[in-house]
Amino acid sequence: MYPDVQGLQPEKRYKITRVGVKNVVKPIFVKRGDKTVTLVTTIDIFVDLPPSKKGSDMSRNMEVISEILEESITTPCTGIENLASKIVKKVMRKHEYATYAEVNLKADYFLERKTPLGRKTIERYGLIGRAKMDESGVKKMVGVEVVGMTACPCAMETVRTILKEKYKDSLLNEIPVPTHNQRNMATVMLEVPEGYEIEANDLIEIIENSVSSPTYEILKRRDEGEVVLRAHENPKFVEDVVREILHRILQKYKQLPDDVLIIVRSESEESIHKHNAFAERITTLGELKK
Q1: Other beta carbons within 10 Å of 230
Q2: Which residues of this protein are annotated with the site description May be catalytically important (predicted)?
Q3: To which CATH superfamily is domain 1-135 assigned?
Q4: Which CATH architecture fits 146-289?
Q5: Against a cut of 0.85, is the pTM above it?
Q6: Fewer Cβ close by (within 10 Å): the C or N end of the chain?
């Protein structure tokens, strides 16, 4: 019989809020409609630890992942958020001492897109599933990360003023003028209540319609010009991106319960600075309706 070191009394009796495993990479099978996809998924699993226990039984987390992986081969989950929910319930059962469990999943996700001139490309997105469980039950969220482009409205108007001082042409009031651009990473997380489904593809579309312009892996000259022009015709701060996403979420999901949690982030890699610009709103659907 091997000693149970994890079960010993710790020298310093303090509760641990989260303990577990991070960056476990496994292939997971997910079915949406009549389509089954394989997601190479990075998995984080945490539970809390009481002050009476020296260590967490981390191998139990790996056992759960192995069991879920086997099950997903024959019975794929219907979404990454449902997979997270399934894992978190099993984790809670395995750790009988835990009062809280959390599972975070992240995977690359690919969609076919068309450039402004209609050229087909395959674009990469981040797909996120999250589930938390305590005495009140399970809460799950689905989310996406999307890379887009923003053009700075402040610099644009400053440049316009400078150009009007140099060139007396009324056309300068009607056309977009040069400004600096950013690669923007926007993230949306939306709580999924029982009995509801939220499509990741819809969240991706919301973000791509909220930035100055989507970005593409393949752009020939005319397409490249169209993307740049589109962004300059639609200049936005990171704050504008967050607000536009919130507005579109409210329009798309007004039928969801008011207590649904919403997290929206926008971060731009500045081209003329060494720092990034960032904006975030954490709210509920009910608060957005006010």
Answers
A1: 16
A2: 152
A3: Urate Oxidase; (3.10.270.10)
A4: Roll (3.10)
A5: yes
A6: N
The label of the residue with tokens 């991706």 reads 204
